[in-house]
Amino acid sequence: MASTSDIRKGLCIHYNHDIFKVIEFLHVKPGKGPAFVRTKLKSVTTGKVIDNTFSAGHKIEDVRVETHKFQFLYSDGDDFHFMNTSDYNQIRLNREVLDSPDLLKEGEVVTILINSEDNSPLSVDMPASVILEITHTEPGVKGNTATNATKPATVETGAQINVPLFINEGDKIKVETDKGSYMERVKE
């Protein structure tokens, strides 16, 4: 058993007869009244995100998890196939379990949380950023740079990302996986 002081991003807990992963949390201590923890929880079975508030000191039932490195092999419709980098066992996960499946390219190494009680995969943690190549974008209009202007671009995985006007097809960019946003251009 854990309490609200143990809540952190990535923690998996039993709540409402399901297993949820904490995506965001905020400890709040109002001037008047008791402290509480505001959380955003994502179901690892359905992918549904809910908001919940726990009062300070509330007991929560955490799930024992193991982390393993897996390499993304390929996607087959809504199924994504991964291989354990240590023992080469393969698993298949549904698209719903992944936080940002559009940014996952073949060969990418991710961390998968596995429930140690029944060895079922709970969630996939992407790296903080990924490097992707631009496959299609319109050329930027010269002289339109007075503001922080962006244009849509398609990357090699098929995801749409807004990039600055100076980015061209064939450029490699670093993308933040949490927000799916452009970070910087990568020089070879």
User: Into which percent range does the helicity of residues fall?
Assistant: under 10%
Strand order of the largest sheet: 1-6-2-3-4-5
Q: How would you characterize the largest beta sheet? A: 6 strands, antiparallel
Q: Radius of gyration in whole Å, from Cα?
A: 20 Å
Helix count from the secondary structure assignment: 0
The tally of domains stands at 3
CATH architecture of the largest domain: Roll
Apparent shape: flat
Please, what is the oligomeric state?
A: single chain
Strand content: over 45%
Helix/strand order: EEEEEEEEEEEEEEEE
Mean pLDDT: 84
The counted number of beta strands is 16
Could you tell me how far the N terminus lies from the C terminus, measured between alpha carbons in angstroms? 49 Å
Describe this structure in words.
- The protein is mainly beta and 188 residues long.
- The protein folds into three domains: 2-62, SH3 type barrels; 65-125, Nucleic acid-binding proteins (OB fold (Dihydrolipoamide Acetyltransferase, E2P), Beta Barrel), CATH 2.40.50; 129-186, Beta Barrel (OB fold (Dihydrolipoamide Acetyltransferase, E2P)).
- 0% of the residues lie in helices and 54% in strands.
- It contains no helices and 16 strands.
- The chain has strands at 2-3, 12-15, 18-28, 36-43, 49-55, 59-62, 65-76, 79-84, 90-94, 109-115, 121-125, 129-137, 150-155, 160-164, 172-176, 181-186.
- The strands form three sheets. Strands 1-6-2-3-4-5 form a six-stranded antiparallel beta sheet, with no helix packed on it. A five-stranded antiparallel beta sheet has the order 9-8-7-10-11, with no helix packed on it. The protein has a five-stranded antiparallel beta sheet with strand order 14-13-12-15-16, with no helix packed on it.
- Strand 8 (79-84) and strand 9 (90-94) form a beta hairpin.
- The mean pLDDT is 84.
- It comes from Kordia antarctica.
- One of its GO terms (molecular function) is translation elongation factor activity.
- Belongs to the elongation factor P family.
- Residues 67-122 form the Translation elongation factor P/YeiP central domain.
- One of its GO terms (cellular component) is cytosol.
